[in-house]
């Protein structure tokens, strides 16, 4: 969905624009995804699993931009994609039409500047405007920074998926389900 750009001032005084993604972001988005996947163990992909072509990414971004009930938002700091968050539909079946998913990741250099809080608040307000009644997400055990952010904006832990992620060294981590009624 296309939504209004929003300017925020970060804790370090820099300006950041929260805006819809466009297909012109394809190259930067692949670079961003590769970087965040390598910087934290709390996302689904390993860095070497980010193998999209520019053409694939352009198509995906275009589809996201034009999806009526989805949002892909980037945090743009001086032309650099600092982070990305998304509202994802559960499909058009009436019994799950009221639910959406939420996901977010920022490059490490942009953590703790207030971007995550601003993005999640804006995305959830847009989700409510779109008619969603609840937002849902998964957070990996040990990701205190993310859990703190989610609880701050009203998400509540509602379940646990044990051994949800398996790492290359053979270890596992559980994942918590969190829900916010909008
Ligand atoms: C989780 C993430 C989105 C948070 O975004 P952010 O822009 O850093 O968050 P903010 O600056 O808005 O807020 C961070 C909050 O966490 C707090 N915090 C910082 N380090 C923390 C830690 N180790 N444990 C708990 N809380 C912490 C900060 O004090 C701040 O709280 P406050 O607003 O009450 O002062 C970001 O760190 C990130 O992208 N991490 C990697 C990817 C990821 O984990 N994504 C979530 C997957 S579920």
SSE layout:
Blueprint (H helix, E strand, L loop, with lengths): L5 E4 L5 E6 L5 H14 L14 H13 L4 E7 L2 E10 L9 E8 L8 H15 L4 E7 L3 H9 L3 E11 L5 E10 L1
Parallel strand pairs: 5-6
Antiparallel strand pairs: 1-2, 2-3, 3-4, 4-5, 6-8, 7-8
Helix pairs in contact: 1-2
Bound molecules: coenzyme A.
Coenzyme A binds next to strand 5, helix 3 and helix 4.
Q: Can you put this structure into words, describing what you see?
A:
With 182 residues, the chain is α+β, with helices and mostly antiparallel strands. The chain has a single domain, classed as Gcn5-related N-acetyltransferase (GNAT) (Aminopeptidase, 3-Layer(aba) Sandwich). It has helices at residues 26-39, 54-66, 115-129, 144-152; strands at residues 6-9, 15-20, 71-77, 80-89, 99-106, 134-140, 156-166, 172-181. Strands 1-2-3-4-5-6-8-7 form an 8-stranded mixed sheet, with helices on both faces. The protein starts with 5 loop residues before the first strand and ends with a strand. Bound molecules: coenzyme A. Residues 40, 42-43, 104-106, 111-117, 139, 143-146, 148-149, 152 line the site of coenzyme A (COA). Coenzyme A is lined by residues 40, 42-43, 104-106, 111-117, 139, 143-146, 148-149, 152.
Key traits:
182 residues; alpha+beta; Aminopeptidase; 8-stranded mixed beta sheet
Work out the number of β strands. 8
Give the name of the CATH superfamily: Gcn5-related N-acetyltransferase (GNAT)
| Proper CATH architecture | 3-Layer(aba) Sandwich
Give average pLDDT, whole number.
97
> How many structural domains can be distinguished in the coordinates?
1
Principal-axes shape call: globular
Largest sheet data: 8 strands, mixed
CATH topology: Aminopeptidase
Radius of gyration: 16 Å
